[in-house]
Design brief:
mainly alpha, elongated
Length: 44
């Protein structure tokens, strides 16, 4: 998701973490993001 508001996304996931708490969890390894790149479109 690009340019997605953190508060709106957290609400969708029923998360109670603030953005700062989320960043702390990322840095500590408690939260891990699984990011898969979008396949590129082959050039013609």
């Amino acid at each position: 998701m690009k340019d997605y508001d953190y508060d709106a996304g957290a609400k969708l996931l029923n998360s109670t973490l603030t953005f700062d708490e989320f960043l702390t969890a990322l840095r500590s390894g408690l939260v891990v993001l699984n990011v898969t790149p979008t396949p590129s479109i082959p050039a013609r």
